[in-house]
Amino acid sequence: MIEIKSRDQLEAMRAAGLVVARALAAVAEHVRAGVSTAELDELAEQTIRDAGAVPSFKGYHGFPASICASVNDQVVHGIPRSTQVLCDGDLISIDCGAILAGWHGDAAITVPVGPVSAAELALSEATRQAMLAGVAAAVPGARLTDISYAIESRVREAERADGARYGIVPDYGGHGIGTAMHMEPFLPNCGRPGRGPKLRTGMAIAVEPMLTLGLPRTRELDDGWTVVTMDGKRAAHWEHSVAVTDDGPWVLTAPPD
Questions:
Q1: Cβ contact 130:211 at 8 Å
Q2: Is 210 strand, coil or helix?
Q3: 234-255 burial by CB neighbour count: b if 16+ within 10 A, else e?
Q4: Distance CA 155, CA 25 (A)
Q5: DSSP assignment string, 100-161
Q6: Which value, in Å, is the radius of gyration of the alpha carbons in the chain?
Q7: pLDDT tens per residue across all 257 residues of the chain
Q8: Do 98 and 104 form a contact (C-beta atoms < 8 A)?
Q9: DSSP class of residue 62?
Q10: Nearest-CA neighbor of 68 among 149, 191, 172?
Q11: Cut 0.85: pTM above it
């Protein structure tokens, strides 16, 4: 079953999404060499709780933190640690969720630490643009994999423009969101269009491509959470929660501006 929300319920999700946007903005501003990922996690949690919300991630299936902080070859689900101190040249993806009045928001950004290579900046921007292409495809009457196809198509466009080859991680993707963080349907980040359920007004979906600078193959570390690239190449992750509306896609986790 795919949850359909009323306009008032989507407004409540927007409120949760704004909490996530503020938390990510605060964390991004604090990203610099010498800062640990545990410090970033503390800042995010405080920002979320100050807004009267609760971190979605903390305690979720035993996850010990309020954000996922994935550095360099860590694709997703990186556990913040006091021993993981950022250095110039690192690339960090920060995934954050919040629950407000029973509704969830979920978004992710990738942030460079000091100067990073042009290839890594291009990787992050290609991932962000792929996310935006997926968001734009979330319209009533479309099929779920129309979003997948839009993401993949934008990635291939970026490859031609950048003279690069990006790996689209196949085992992780977007998902429905609303009264729970992860709901049906699962959204692949690549695939043929015209498949899956028809998108209806009131659906909400987290669109979240993850790209690598190498092969898309990944493995999970012994901590049971952190996913890294098999070839050690760097990765980027961008995400927004978007509502399907009669007026077009509504990005629930976008900053107010």
A1: yes
A2: strand
A3: bbbbbbbbbbbbeeebbbbbbe
A4: 25
A5: ETTEEEEEEEEEE-SS--HHHHHHHHHHHHHHHHHHHT--TT-BHHHHHHHHHHHHHHHHHH
A6: 17
A7: 899 999 999 999 999 999 999 999 999 999 999 999 999 999 999 999 999 999 999 999 999 999 999 999 999 999 999 999 999 999 999 999 999 999 999 999 999 999 999 999 999 999 999 999 999 999 999 999 999 999 999 999 999 999 999 999 999 999 999 999 999 999 999 999 999 999 999 999 999 999 999 999 999 999 999 999 999 999 999 999 999 999 999 999 999 87
A8: yes
A9: G
A10: 172
A11: yes
Residues in the chain: 257
3-state secondary structure of 21: helix
Instruction: Give CB contacts under 8 A, 24+ apart, made by 228-234.
Output: 228/73, 228/74, 228/75, 229/73, 229/75, 229/167, 232/73, 233/73, 233/167, 234/72, 234/73, 234/91, 234/120, 234/123
Residue type, 216: P
Smallest Cα–Cα separation from 90: which of 31, 23, 44? 31
| Planar angle of CA 18, 22, 27, nearest 5 degrees | 145
CA 66 from centroid of its chain's CA atoms: 14
> Identity (one letter) of the amino acid at 32?
R
In which element (H, E) is residue 74 found? strand 74-76
Token couple for 218: 């990944």
Angle made by CA atoms 172, 174, 178, in degrees to the nearest 5: 135
